[in-house]
Amino acid sequence: MAKFYGKIGYCETMETSPGVWTEKITERDYFGDLVRNTRKLQTPDGVNDDINIANEISILADPYTMHNFHAMRYVNFMGTKWKISSVEVSYPRLILTVGGVYNEQTNRT
Fold first, then answer.
1. Do the beta carbons of residue 35 and residue 77 sit within 8 Å?
2. What share of the chain is helix, strand, coil (3-state, %, to 5)?
3. Which domains does the chain have, with CATH numbers?
4. Element (H, E) at 2
5. Strand 72-77 relative to strand 80-90, pairing
6. Among 47, 104, 51, residue whose Cα is nearest residue 78
7. What is the pTM of this model?
8. Mean per-residue pLDDT for 50-68?
9. What angle do CA 65, 99, 1 make, to 5 degrees?
């Protein structure tokens, strides 16, 4: 089993002004194990194929993770942010299933 070390992004929705909600991302570092490492190509209606990975990463959960696993959005793996498609709680570990590339929202004024 390969070892994993990387950042996991948590999303918190905050009201910045009355009626205006924005997402704030908080990153935290984690150690774990790479349980499954696979990739697949999906052919959309466009010209280029989309690259998706179907990896499973097992991390050791701390109290923050156990209370906020529902807010996990992405994991930084091999220099790219990948969407977390599901989280399995298997205390004291969380098993993260990773999917396609995470598209960050940028605030533009």
1. no
2. 10, 65, 25
3. 2-13+40-101 (2.40.10)
4. strand 2-17
5. antiparallel
6. 51
7. 0.79
8. 88
9. 70
Please name the residue that has the structure tokens 């194929």.
49
Encoded amino acid at 67, one letter: H
Query: Can you read off the two tokens belonging to residue 29?
Result: 């570092």
The two three-digit tokens of residue 23, written as one number: 């997402």
What pLDDT, on the 0 to 100 scale, is given for residue 108?
A: 45
pLDDT of residue 37: 77
Torsions phi, psi for 79 (to 5 deg): 85, 5
Type of residue at 101: V
Question: 12: Cβ–Cβ under 8 A, 6 or more apart, which residues?
Answer: 23, 24, 25, 26, 71
For 28, the token pair is: 């935290």
Which region among 45-54, 57-66, 74-83 has the lowest average model confidence (pLDDT)? 45-54
What pLDDT, on the 0 to 100 scale, is given for residue 46?
Answer: 66
Helix (H, G, I), strand (E, B) or coil at 74: strand
The CA radius of gyration of the chain, in Å to the nearest whole number, is 15
